[in-house]
Amino acid sequence: MKNRNVTVDLIRTLAIVLMVVFHFIYDLRSFGYVAWDIPDGAGWKQFRYVILTLFFICVGIGLAYVHGKQTQWRGFLRRFMQVSVGAALVTAMSLVMFPKNWIYFGVLHFIALASLLALPLARRPQVALWFGLLFIAAFNMGWISSRWPFIYIGQWLPSYANDFVPIIPWFGVVCLGIFLGHSRWLARDPLGMIKLKRWQAWPGKHSLLVYLIHQPILIGLLTVFNYLMVK
To answer: Are 222 and 31 spatial neighbours (Cβ–Cβ below 8 Å)?
Structure first.
């Protein structure tokens, strides 16, 4: 698409901003500056769900936009490899920093797998809608465990990972994003009247880069601040 959809850019940018805020508060807790029960306490868990929903809706929309008429294999494989390498880096860093709670299937791992699984649905919005509703309903009815399929290899995985995204129900959200990406409502770009400056749209356009670098920057700044305060 030559013309960007402002509504999608804003949704993605909002997800990025909320994610940075969430992780900053999490880091404050890790450094002992606050005692809030993040990420698993009441309110914080739901806050994370909002962030994930926005991200994964955008994943589905992106698949519909780019591959909705014909699969662009070169672009898909390039993006798939970028996300997969990012996921591997997250796992490697978590093994060093949190060996008892390392990340084996976090946000980037999920996005890579979900993109691969959802690609055949990119041109089938009605089928994607039914798949999305089915997966979400199956989870909420208790038919499928959120630990599936990792329950079968649980003895080799940490009992608690610093980031974990269940395939079910979140794959259903990606499917709903595909349906939304084909909708007339989104095609009309309901927020298109908002004139974004380049810096305002930058986080949404470079979400993978922001995801990879924001935590090292936040932790680095807090480490320096903590050192100066103690000194």
So the answer is: yes
pTM given for the model: 0.90
Question: How buried is residue 46: exposed, middle or buried, by Cβ count under 10 Å (0-12/13-18/19+)?
Answer: exposed
Can you tell me whether residue 30 is helix, strand or coil? helix
Nearest to 22 by CA among 6, 3, 55, 45: 45
What distance in Å separates the CA atoms of residue 118 and residue 56, rounded to the nearest whole number? 12
Beta-bridge partner residues of 164 = 105
Could you state, in order of their start, the residue ranges of all structural domains in the chain?
A: 6-230
Question: For residue range 137-183, what is the model confidence (pLDDT) as tens digits?
Answer: 999 998 988 888 898 888 899 989 999 999 999 999 999 999 999 99
Backbone angles phi, psi at 116, to 5 degrees: -65, -45
183's tokens: 């909708």
Q: Is residue 101 within 8 Å of residue 161, measured between CB atoms?
A: yes
